[in-house]
Amino acid sequence: MHASRRPLLALVSMAVTLVGACDDTPEERDSEPVIELAVRRLDDGQDIAEFEAARDAFVARLRERDGVEVDRELRAFFDFGSQAAPTAPVFVGMTQYATSEAFGAAGEALGSSPEAAAFFATFTPEAFTALRPLDAAQPVDLAAIADQPGQVLEIAVRDLSAYEGFDQAAYEAARDGFLALLRDQPGFVAEYQWVSVLDPNTVVGMTVYESQEAFFGVLGNERFVDDPATAAFLFGYPPATAYVSSVVR
To answer: How would residue 29 be classed by pLDDT, with cut points 50, 70 and 90?
Structure first.
């Protein structure tokens, strides 16, 4: 097995053990929906059609599982790391499960399946986690995120443990100030804040824009880019992985 596959298989296995471990009230939180997030960079020379066939075969098995409610797929067109299009195709998969137990059971049942092995052999994982809303009162409805024609989705994954001298209050102030500014931009549709159920240091922000043109309009707005609130958050807390993607399904 290629070395890059092992971390993903280990994470799938770990999910079975750790899901719910970060909860303050496990019995209540385990009964709530979770969203699996998988960011996948195709390997050099990987045929996209072969990747899609392997993905669809795996997802077909996944959809047979109890508790799998919604499955989404996106393809990245902008990489915040390079400030350009991805150098290799990047696809983002998101799956909503009825409960964290359903998520863990799916990983246990399918993580070592032939479909999983064939699928995982086509890409290198850049991010894999399971999420709940930062605001526990926010409903989970993956089908409603970027659900209109032409809308695009920005996904930024941050590891809070990677920031030297991390201060939670300072981070939240910078995040909230940036989001307040972002909501005022033309073409902004919605934003979502998530926390990982596998690692309390992993947080994810998602922003929906009306279109690719709207996103690039925000990116090219000098007043927005040069605003102190933008610098405080994006330069103070750079994401580990961040892409903007068009909806595949």
So the answer is: low
Query: Vertex 11, ends 82 and 139: CA angle to 5°?
Result: 80
Instruction: Tell me which DSSP letter residue 43 carries.
Output: P
Band of residue 18 on the pLDDT scale cut at 50, 70, 90: very low
Phi, psi dihedral angles at 211 (to 5 degrees)? -170, 170
Whether 188 has a pLDDT exceeding 80, the answer reads yes
Paired strand residues for 39: 92, 127
**Residue 4: is it exposed, middle or buried by C-beta count within 10 angstroms (0-12/13-18/19+)?**
middle
How far apart CA 244 and CA 182 sit, in angstroms, is 15
Angle at 129 between CA 65 and CA 125, to 5 degrees: 100
Segment 144-166, tens digit of pLDDT? 999 999 999 999 999 999 999 99
Burial grade of 133 (CB within 10 A; 0-12, 13-18, 19 or more): middle
Amino acid (1-letter code) at residue 70 = V
Terminal-to-terminal C-alpha distance of the chain: 30
> Residue 17: left if φ>0, alpha if ψ -120 to 50, beta else—which one?
alpha
Mean pLDDT score of the chain: 91
